[in-house]
Amino acid sequence: MNLERVPALSLFSTEAFRDHWWIKLLCEQIGDVFVTDDGPPNGSFTTYFRVISRRSYGSNELLRDLYYLHELRHLRGFLRRGPITDWLAWQRAMGHSELDASVTSECVVHFLVPEARRAFEGEIWVDRFLRERKFQWFVGQTDLEEIGVLRSQLSAERIRALSTPTHNDYLEWQIHNYGVQNMRWYVIWAKPVRCGPCAETAAWRVVEEHLARPDWIERHADWLDSVSILPGGIRFPMQATAFAEVYRHSVDEFGNWPLAT
Question: What's the N-to-C CA distance of the chain in angstroms?
């Protein structure tokens, strides 16, 4: 995997994101990040092991910036928490990270960076809240406490959709499906790596133990090669392959493709 360390802010390409105070604050909290141009296979969540994969999304620069916002929010949370040695605690921490990143990049951003909404042509889940009178106070908000209130309210709505989607609301069933998909990812990462010096160790534990080292940044490139079958190959190949099938099935059942028919 070809790694490069770059300032987090340099990932954004649109002025709407790059020049926004809220985006700048997030990037200042993170600093430099590992990035790669190597395209990950479906099922390989490289941000978990602290590498953000560059993506293009064609000419849709706003959608690309939303992707980077999602991954950087994940990274911010990962960098702030300490090492975890218990799978249930790890699973819950990863679930919290996904909720936080999704609410940030799919909901909160559309209140603070209105231009981001142009990334999508059709209806998206957050539109229902953008239309509500009680949420208008948060549009363009600059007070961090008020943004925290917005995040809490939208998180509660997201948790409701994850748990009990409205019976005839496809967008909420998509969110519910994401939750099921994520739970399957957690279970896959409880299985052994099946390659490298830690072949019989649970994949999540291999990552946590490496990142708990004070010199993990200096050792990162070599470590990434140790968790692939071949140097430069797929990292955590068993986990990536298993989740690729989960992801394929998930898209087939609740992907965006019906919205374009």
Answer: 38
Identify whether 247 is part of a domain.
yes
What is the arrangement of strands in the sheet containing 32-36, beginning at the earlier edge strand? 4-7, 32-36, 51-53
DSSP state of 127: H
Where do we find the tokens 């992907």?
255
Give, in degrees to the nearest 5, the angle at Cα 177 between 93 and 41. Answer: 75
Region of residue 83 (phi > 0: left; psi between -120 and 50: alpha; otherwise: beta):
beta
**By residue range, what is the domain housing residue 131?**
4-254
Token pair listed for 194? 């099946």
Q: What is the pLDDT of residues 100-141, one digit of tens each?
A: 999 999 999 999 999 999 999 999 999 999 999 999 999 999
pTM of the model: 0.95
Instruction: Give how many domains the chain has, as a whole number.
Output: 1
Crossing angle for the helix pair 61-80 and 21-30, nearest 10 degrees?
40
